[in-house]
Write a structure and sequence with these properties.
Elements lengths: L1 E5 L8 H14 L4 E5 L5 H5 L11 H6 L8 H4 L1 E4 L2 E4 L6 H8 L7 H7 L7 E5 L6 H9 L2 E7 L8 H15 L4 E9 L4 H14 L3 E7 L2 H8 L4 H4 L4 H18 L10 H10 L3 H9 L5 H5 L3 H8 L3 H16 L1 H9 L6 H4 L6 H7 L2 H13 L7
Parallel strand pairs: 1-5, 1-6, 2-4, 2-5, 6-7, 7-8
Antiparallel strand pairs: 3-4
The structure holds adenosine-5'-diphosphate and magnesium ion.
Length: 382
């Protein structure tokens, strides 16, 4: 199980939208997901059309129970979609927040509760309030990762340094380290300001920034007022596409961290050699989690070209070739691998690996393959 807090000191930065829809996309990918609404404004709860009556237990009720009357988190979780459960929030009078503050284990209440359900869920996602008080600190202490949605507006960086300071304090005084990932949200590509701010965010956050950008999408706004996640409300919308991309990137960057090293498939290695600079291109692909043909064919050519340092034309060809290989693996592979070349492959002892053969095969067969591949419709270019 991995716990992720969605936090930003600033309200309206897309926290709740990200928490709800990232959860929904991970659930769609068949992961068992628990979404905890930790904001007394209950926006995530309302996004599923749920409103608690005053006497119904919320996450805050559970956090306030004394150890002798232990609360069971699993009993509070409500199924809201396939593979997705929600623990609702409720209004929290100020005095209650203060009463949480007076406990010994005040920063680890939530972590203890989440520990109860460690075997039931793959991901626990916490939607934090727009503040860095006791609730958000509980969320950080319970999490291994924090996703930091940042609105691509003039005030984007407002308060971000305070969030980063809070991470440092928790590391220094409570020996709890979290890794964080900024995500640009509410991006309007039509405005130069949005584009400039995105560049600025990328420069500032560098490796702590998700590639995926969440664009403005009216469907995202509408979905929450319909009480549905975007995967249910409009599963072909750009909002759904962006959050599913984010979920995929998240799985590569965050969730599989520390497991076996991830390597590109043989076919991707081959394409990096044909269209790029071999090892460098491969490393850039690997760092972006583009390990398979399936991933490569979904890439956006101009964006990928920029990262790989290749021309858009070469990148487009590489993606088209990946699409072709992915769709007709049996047809294409023998064609590009059996060319009777000359050079390295003949010097090598025994049968050369497929990628060498391709490099040395007569170029006309490669050109034929790519020319055909270019005609093939790309999934991102409708
Ligand atoms: N990508 C988006 N496109 C359009 N509207 C969005 C998008 N992300 C969020 N919103 C809307 O912006 C408002 C603030 O978003 P929300 O996720 O509630 O932010 P926060 O939880 O940080 O306060 C909401 O009305 C939400 O529907
Ligand atoms: Mg919110």
């Amino acid at each position: 199980m991995r716990t992720i807090a969605i936090a930003n000191h600033k309200g309206g930065s897309g926290k709740t939208t990200t928490a709800v829809n990232l959860s929904a996309c991970l659930a769609e990918m068949k992961y068992q997901v628990l979404l905890i609404d930790l904001d007394p404004q209950s926006h995530a709860t309302l996004s599923f059309g749920i409103e608690l009556a005053d006497d119904e237990p919320s996450i805050f009720w559970a956090m306030q129970q004394p150890a002798s009357e232990r609360a069971y988190l699993a009993e509070l979780a409500r199924p809201v979609a396939k593979n997705l459960s929600l623990i609702p929030s409720a209004r929290l009078p100020l005095s209650h927040e203060e009463s949480l503050l007076s406990r010994d284990n005040r920063l680890t209440r939530l972590r203890e509760l989440i520990g109860q359900v460690a075997t039931k869920f793959d991901f626990v996602i916490i939607d934090c309030p727009p503040a860095l008080g006791i609730l958000t600190q509980n969320a950080f202490m319970a999490s291994q990762s924090v996703v930091l949605p940042v609105e691509t507006s003039f005030y984007a960086m407002n308060g971000v340094s305070r969030v980063l300071d809070t991470f440092e304090e928790l590391a220094r005084f409570h020996h709890h380290k979290v890794e964080y990932w900024a995500v640009a949200t509410l991006f309007d590509k039509r405005t130069a300001l949005s584009r400039d701010i995105l560049e600025e965010l990328r420069r500032f956050f560098r490796n702590n920034m998700m590639e995926t950008v969440i664009r403005l999408s009216i469907h995202l706004r509408e979905a929450s007022s319909h009480g549905e996640p975007i995967t249910v409300y409009a599963n072909t919308s750009r909002g759904c596409q962006d959050y599913c991309d984010l979920a995929e990137e998240f799985l590569v960057k965050v969730a599989h961290r520390g497991e076996e090293p991830v390597e590109c498939s043989e076919e991707v290695i081959l394409l990096a050699q044909i269209y790029g600079n071999g090892r460098e291109t491969l490393e850039a692909l690997r760092q972006r989690g583009i390990l398979s043909l399936a991933k490569l064919r979904m890439a956006e050519p101009s964006k990928l070209a920029h990262h790989l340092g290749l021309t858009v034309h070469a990148t487009r060809q590489m993606i088209a070739h990946a699409t072709r290989l992915h769709t007709f693996p049996q047809q294409i592979m023998p064609m590009v691998t059996t060319g009777s070349g000359h050079g390295i492959s003949q010097e090598a002892e025994g049968p050369a690996p497929a990628n060498q053969l391709v490099l040395e095969s007569n170029t006309s067969s490669i050109e034929t393959a790519t020319a055909e591949a270019d005609d093939f419709p790309h999934p991102n270019h409708h």
